[in-house]
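Worked problem 6 (solution included).
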Amino acid sequence: MTAQHSAAPRFRLSPMRPRDPGEEGRAASTLELFFDLVFVIAVSIASSHLHDTVTEGRLGDGVVNYLVVFFGIWWAWMNFTWFATSFDTDDWLYRVLTIVQMGGVLILAAGIGPVFENEDYRLLIGGYVLMRIIMISQWLRASRGARVARWTTIIYAAGIGLAQILWVMWLAIDDSMIRSVGLVVLILAEVAVPVIAEARGKTPWHPHHITERYGCFTIIVLGESLLASANTVFDALGEVEDIVPLISLGVLCLIVTAAMWWIYFWPPHHRAIGSLGGSLRYGYGHYFIFAAAGAFSAGVGVEADSQLGASALNPVLATFTVSVPIVVFVLGVWVVAIRANANAVVNTVVPACALLVLLDPIIPVPTFLTTFFMVIIVITLVVFPPLDDNGRTGAEAVVR
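Solution. The predicted structure is:
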């Protein structure tokens, strides 16, 4: 046997070794982008059920169920994303396992309806557990070539495995109080696994790659929200005589979605994940950013139903279902990425204008304040660019 043949990868599999965190030109792969699209299906279904439940007047139930369902969507996406930035081999086994995970996402998506309708979590957790089992196999495969991060990969696999056993056991609980407490404990257990594992030894994440992945998912979720919001307004236009409020709502959708995009991509996100603490804050903080982006379209649907007289929700509360997701999104981006890269003016205007959006539901001109304050934020970001590595704005650096 020649040396060339003896060196051929066994079963045509590439060794799963840690990727170089300083790798030049590292970008999101087509498989990762394909993976994101399946998750957006789940986000869209969750947003649709949030809209239906809130329109029926069950605001509390809708919000709680949405936040729980969205945790499953976001957590499975986030775990794969951080794993891939460290150990992506893109060989056939890695691709097959990723596609099986995508099947788990579709099962989870099919289980969203039963959760909102009658608190039936069986199908949703079945899809979630399938995705997590695949991640266990990926972490175990990575452990063989992880070198100094070997124990970290094993802790990931063991922690995820233990959590899945507990999720299955949780399904057997009948008492509603114990069930609710158990749900919170299990969510905390899941988010604790990376904290414990990374404290043992950091996996080699790529700052530019991981923040590009978050940016891609943000664009997809914002696009889904814009599409859902536009369809809601278009469908409602033929059902009312006074179309001015609906036109205002449609304008709001476009301006606010564009402003959300502008705000999100203003700061250099890669600076936020230099340390373990910063990475955890960035990764976990995006739960609120993604969930708010998904809930925005639901809020627009609720507001449109309210204007048509087809909602059981109080009109003021209906308007808050649009305002609150916007506020959460903007404040979330400010906390995880803008604050450390902005001067005092930006760090005053962004959170202040975000909070002032909450005044919109109490004035007689629909959506005016929301649109006004989001435009003010964007103008401020245009005037004051992000700080450079020396703590100066781009304009200051040019003058000097």
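Discussion: The radius of gyration is 23 Å.
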